[in-house]
Amino acid sequence: MSQLHEQEEALRRTLGLSRRRLLAATTGIAAAAAVPLAQPAAADPVQAQGGRNRPLIPPGKRGIILYTVRDAIGRDPASTTLPSGFRRVFEALARIGYQQVEFAGYRQHANAEGGANLETVEGARLLRSWLDDNGLRAEGNHGFIPASWPLSTADLDRFKQVLEIANILGLDHVGTGSDPTGSAYKADWDVAAEKWNALGELACQAGLKLYTHNHDAAYAFLLDSGPLDEQGRPTRSSGIRKLEYFFEISDPRRVYFEMDIFWAHVAQFKHRTYTAPDGSAQTDVFDPLATVLAREKRFPLFHAKDGTANPGTANGYDMVPFGAGDIDYARFFGRLRSRGLHNPMYEQDNAPGADPGQSLQYAELSYRNMAALRG
């Protein structure tokens, strides 16, 4: 078996796909496996003609959240010749073709250039210089959001530093990788909205948009009605989902969202029924695309995370590189009214693996599939 076929077979086994399905679901997989990361990114496929065959994700909008390659950022550059630390990983991502990144914190290995913690004014300036050197733009960060409300002086000071660092880096958005609250109860979402509206105002004053990232639980049904439990909390639902309620009570000029499209499809699989106020069981299947289209301008960011359907698991999907799964991204991005508005960030939680080069290999494969997505 040739080295190329061995690489293809290893990827197929890792993803749990048949060889035919792997070849059908990915674009240029053999070429992607054969091209080393040091090579320039290949040119895009045929350009748009008369509005047809247009790229659904424009070149300038193809991004990656750095959590996907966290192993590369966090490894000791003295122990490997592979890209290590922010600067070298930026270089690798730019060679692949990415033009946007989203931070997931500002820490790297202590031996990497700049040291372990770059969440300082000086560190942000260093990061910005590396971004600029590689033609990359940072669009957001999964960072600090105060847990308590009202804000303590310490929390307020730290959040102001978050905004200062964001502006040095040139971010348009600042946010978190967590839901506004993990609670199922209306009263807690009311408090969350009050806090996020206030933080959103601070972000707006700094010229930034504040955003929250969803997991599937945020699209479960809100407990807001019915008999009360022993602690005086409602036990049934009117049928509104938790984040849908938050859409309505948060300020549309101050609070924005990053839909993780994978977790939204997990919610479609998991959160289908609720107990109505009269005790009856009701079914309501979640539609991620309709949720975005109803308030498209509030979703400046997406996580473009793919999955293969696996109904035998709790989530109903297994994470795979972008373009290798069953989520219909051609339909999702093709139905959006403004392709220039949104910033899709490729994410794959399980990209790091036993192969130390795997996360960057998946990043290259996923970039090629993002570029090949047409409509």
Automatic annotation (TrEMBL):
Record keywords, A-Z: Isomerase
Record-linked InterPro entries: IolE/XylAMocC-like, TAT_signal, Xyl_isomerase-like_sf, Xyl_isomerase-like_TIM-brl
SUPFAM superfamilies, per database record: Xylose isomerase-like
Domain of life of the source: Bacteria
Isomerase among keywords: yes
Every Xylose isomerase-like TIM barrel domain range: 90-345
GO MF: isomerase activity
Protease among keywords: no
PROSITE patterns per UniProt: TAT
Name recorded for this polypeptide: Sugar phosphate isomerase/epimerase
Lineage: Bacteria, Bacillati, Actinomycetota, Actinomycetes, Streptosporangiales
